[in-house]
Amino acid sequence: MSNELKNQSSWGKGKRVITGLNVGIMVLVAFGIFVAVNYISSRYYFHRDCTFSQEHTLSDKTKQILEKVDALDDPVKIYTLFADPELLLDSQARNKINDLREEYKVYSKNLVFENINPFFESARIKALEKELQELQYDFSINVFDMIFIYQKRIKIVPLSETYKAKPAGFYGPPTEMESFLGEEVIAGAILNIIQSRKTVVYFVEGHGEPALDDFREGYTELDNLIKRENMVIKKINLLGLNKLPADCDILVLAGPQKKVSLEEQNLLNVFLAQGGKVLIALDPMVSSDLEKFLKKWGVRADNNILVDMKNSVNLRGVPVVGFIKTNKYGRNHPILKKMTPEIMTVFPTVRSVEPVPSPGAGLTAVSLVSSLSTAWGETDFDGISRGETPRYQPGRDKKGPVSLAVAVTKRLSDGQEARLVVFGDSEWLRNNYIMIFPRVDLFMNSLRWLARQESLISIEPKKPEDRSIAMHEGKKELILKLVCFLLPVLSVMMGIAVWFIRRK
Question: How far is residue 500's CA from residue 504's CA, in Å, rounded to a whole number?
Fold first, then answer.
C-alpha cells in the first residue's frame, strides 16, 4: 500500500513537472511568436486605406518627392506649432494634418516631425527660435505655423493655407471645409526647401519707393512674409546698369514716386524679353511714366483713383475716399487658385489697371481682381484735394466694376515664358496698412506664380465627404434602446442561463 502511495506521489510530481515544462515552453513559444510578428510587421507591413474616397492615400507625386527626401544626406525637419484651435475649421485641418503626418512617416524615414504647443512648451519654443536664429533667420513664428527646415533652408506655412472653406453666411466665420489642400501644401513646401537654389527677389529703389527696413511706412512686414517663403531679398538701383544681375529671378518695382527713366524701362523690357519675371505696384495720382511700357506688355494703367462711397472702408461711420475693399477675383488663373470670397482684399488708394483689349502677339493678359460695381474711377483730383465729396461723372469717370490688377504671360521663341504682374496700388503692402488689413494673399500668390512655384507640385485636393446616416427620431430611439438596454439585458440573461446549466 505504501509503495502504491509512493508511486502515485512520484507520478503526480512528475506530471506537475511535465505540465510546468509544457506551460513554460508554450509561454516561450508564444513570446517568441509575438516578438517575431512584431519584428516582421515593423519591416514588412501591409498598409491599406479603407476610406471610400481614399482620404489617407498619398498621390504618386508625393511618393516621388518622398523618395527624393530619403536620398538626402540630412533629414527634413517639420515642426507644427499646433495648439487647441478656436475655429472649427482649424481643428479639422489640424486633425487631418496629424493623420497625413502618419502617412508621410510610412513612406519616408528621413522626415522628422515634432509638434510643439506654444502655450505649454515655452522652453521648446525658445529652443526652436534659437535654432532659427543660428540659421540666420530672424522673422517671427506664430501659432498654427508649420515650419519646414532642411540644412539652412526654411519655409513656413500657416495652417490656414491647408484648406479651402465653403462660403459662410453673412454673419460669423465659415464652419465647413470645401476641400483639404494639406498634401499639396506639405509636398510643395518639402520640394521647395530641398531644391539646391533659393529664389532671389530684387526690390528696385531710387524712385522714392518705401524702404525694406522702414518699420513705419516701409516693407518690413512684407520682407518677413517673403523670407518665410524660403526666398532671398536683395536691393537694386537700376540707374547706370547695362543688365540685371544673373541671379535675379524676380524684379519688384513697388511704389515708385518719381518717373522711371527710359533707360530703366529698357532694362525691364530686355529682362522680360529674356523670360524674366517682374512685379509692378503703381499708385494713383503719381506719374511714373510707365504707362507706355505697360501698354506694350498688354496692360493699361489709367490715371484715376477708385472711389466707392457705398462699400468703402468706414472710419467712425464716414466712408474713406479711396479705400477699396473687394473679393471679386477672376477665374482660371493659378494666382487665384486659393482666393475665395471669404478673403477680402483692401486697397487704401488704387488706380484702375486692366488688360489691353487686343494685346500683342503671344501676350495673354488676365484681370486678377476687380472692384465692386458701386465703385468708379474718379478723375477729379483737384476736387479730392479740396476735400469735396466725389461724384460719378458719366463719360469722364470709369464706371465699375473696374480691374485693379493684371497678370501677363508671353511665350517666347526659345520656349521660355515672360511673366508680369501689375497692381494699381502699393500702399496696401506697407507696414502701416498690413498691420490693419493683413490679407495680402493676392500679392504672395502672385510672387509664388512669378517664381514658378505653383508648378512645383499640383495634387488634387481631398474633398471631405459626409456619409452620415440620416434617420428619423423613431429609428434613433429604437437603436438607442437596442444598444443601451436590450443587448445588455440579453447578455445578463445568457450569463445566468449558462450558470444554471453548469450548476446542474
Answer: 6
